[in-house]
Request: fold
Amino acid sequence: MSTAAIPELTAVSQALERARESQPSEWQGLQKLSRWEVYTDGSAPIKNPGGAIGFSAVFVLSKSAAWELFGGTPGRKTEPATSNNRAEIAGVLSILEVLHQLKSAGDSLPVEVEIVCDSQYVVNCAQGKWKKHKNKDLWKRFDQLMCVARAAKVRIIFRWTRAHVGTKWNERADVLAKDGAFLALGKKPESAAPEQTTSAPARPDCHYLLQLYSEMSGRNGARGIYRLSTPQRQRETILELEDVVTLDEAEYQILLEGFSDLLNTLSEANRPAEDFRVLVDSSRELMLKQVQGLYGVKSERLQPLHQRAIQAARKFAGVEWNQSKKTELKEELKSW
Reply:
């Protein structure tokens, strides 16, 4: 079963080899366990789709110890383009590849493996609840490896967990997955460094990534979410907006809330906003063109929001604006 033609599968093999070499005692400890609990995650921290992706698997050995592997691939815009979903699948494949290697070597295998993942897409596809319409090359390898596990009488269980609610090993998997993406870009992983909100950029020339998503929830209301991220951490805030007529109006309000959140965070840390750059990711073309000065602002409802957004943006060293597809942002913001 050759995997060389698919970059994600090559990255999985390389990650497994690195983990075995760098953590030999943990690797030996894992093989003594009859039941495995493994947390996995995937990340596209810079741009999704088309940006560098990372994946991870954290094999729990005890309350305080784990055998960890992580890796990633550079961004790829040609089909199949890199994406957070492909990263999530790679994380699961890394676990199944471990079983495959052990079986091939004639080593002992666990009787049960519980895979804990915060991607509903991956968990539902793996359990056969959703059809695998996309990423068929990776799902093909998944099916092959699941056959290997079944033949070896290893029971595989998939369990979904909510992301970013303080679950220890899920949070660790999240950090390592982001490290995998930056490792693919040739940047030093940050997982062993003290956690800081401004230690690593959200892209090579930006320190923070602010992602926005909104939907109308009624004739005069909307619901939105923004995620504020660095490669090491992220937090999401869901907003219920009243007296909103259009999605552009909702998106402006979410943008302002995100800017306000970041400015307050920097102020509390005694860090000047003018030292930091921000990448804003939204699906609303009109708003993005207006804040860049490419379109005028004719709507009386949008004019004050536009002015406030420009004033807030000027407080940073710079703001870059990126347009993503609405469906992709909705999938990326998992708490939605």
